[in-house]
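Example record

The entry below shows one chain as it appears in the dataset: sequence first, then structure tokens.
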Amino acid sequence: MNTTALIMYLVANITVIGITAYFFMKVLRTPAKDHDVDDDGYPDPHGPKTFDAT
């Protein structure tokens, strides 16, 4: 492998690894969303949904 090909190979690999690491760390550092859970009306005030056709 000549020098130009080696440099191009390394630049491409370092770029892809850098972008992947950036987004991976971005996902890890993003805080979780707060979910408002309302169990009083679960799943429906009129009772559970059933699909009984009889």
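Notes for this example: The longest helix spans residues 3-29. The chain has a mean pLDDT of 82.
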